[in-house]
Amino acid sequence: MKATVITPIGPLMSEPSADCERADEALAGMVVELGESRNGYVKATTEYGYTGYMPERCLMMDEVKSRAWAERPLRQITRAALDVMDEPRVQARILNTLPRGARLAELDRRQGWAAVELPDGRQGYVRASGLAPRPDTPWQHRSVWELRSDLARNALAYMGVQYRWGGKTPWGIDCSGLCSMAYLLAGVIIYRDADIRPDYPIHEIAMERIGQGDLIFFPGHVALYLGDGRYIHATAAEGSDGVVVNSLRPDDSDFREDLYTSVTMVGSLF
Q1: Which of 25, 27, 75, 167 is deepest in the core (most CB within 10 A)?
Q2: 35 with 47: CB under 8 angstroms?
Q3: Which residue in the list 58, 141, 179, 221 is annotated as catalytic?
């Protein structure tokens, strides 16, 4: 059975309990596949193949409506956060606040406002500049230079965000959340954890071939390469605690020897 996330964040817990590890976060407007229910939680599998237990209150559990929602030309939020208002004016009542990557259906657009439908069926208004079409061209058909640039730009949009284990939004993000969101916003689904899996499009390459947007893997950690010897990552290391840029060059002040000496592999889409 399919269901749609209707809260800004739908936490995916490792067990059907609030007292366990948060494994991931699905975002408003994403459609998931449901499994067993326990203790007010339901097993949910995301479109990118990640599974955990989500509170039932976060979901519209309606197969027909969820399928119809997934087939609509949805827009994705590009700002860190976007308020949904009950009228097209800044003084209006806020219906909800959604994070980057959440999805809405656009109904109309005028004078800088977009009339939208939320995944729970309510209608409201957002600043049109905070919405963008979801990429509809397969990544294989896009310019490599353009796609690499998009990946770097998407990752840099989270600069300074706090570290959150299992997080995937500008309110808190972890290393694989950052990298997977940079790709997802560009229309590419990769594995959500710090690993390369055969059913996903990332493949291992030699370090000498690394290019902008490629992934650098460490034990239990992953970063996105920006070019010119620099990479961006979400880290809980003392003195960082968030999304930062570091260097692979020993002479740079932001060089991290502990990471440089522990690189396990480099992965690329290209």
Answers
A1: 25
A2: no
A3: 221
The fraction of the chain above a pLDDT of 70, given in percent, is 100
Considering the candidates 20, 58, 203, 233, report the single residue annotated as catalytic. 233
Does 233 participate in catalysis according to the annotation?
yes
Instruction: Please tell me the distance from the alpha carbon of residue 135 to that of residue 18, in angstroms, as a whole number.
Output: 34
DSSP 158: T
Element (H, E) at 33: strand 31-38
Q: 14-55: per-residue pLDDT in tens?
A: 999 999 999 999 999 999 999 999 999 999 999 999 999 999
**Rounded distance, CA 27 to CA 126, Å?**
17
Amino acid identity for residue 30 in this structure: M
- pLDDT band at residue 76 under the 50/70/90 scheme: very high
Which single residue is written with the structure tokens 């998931």? Answer: 32
Query: Band of the pLDDT at 238, cuts 50, 70, 90?
Result: confident
Give tens-digit pLDDT for 114-123.
Answer: 999 999 999 9
Pairing outcome for strands 59-60 and 2-5: antiparallel
> Alpha helices, DSSP H only, in the chain?
63-70, 144-156, 175-184, 257-260
CA gap 82, 95 in Å, rounded: 11
Could you say which of 20, 58, 141, 175 is catalytic? Answer: 175
Residue 46 CA to residue 38 CA, distance in Å, equals 18
203 is catalytic: no
Task: Quote the CA–CA distance of 238 and 252 in Å, as a whole number.
Answer: 19
Tokens of 99: 């994070």
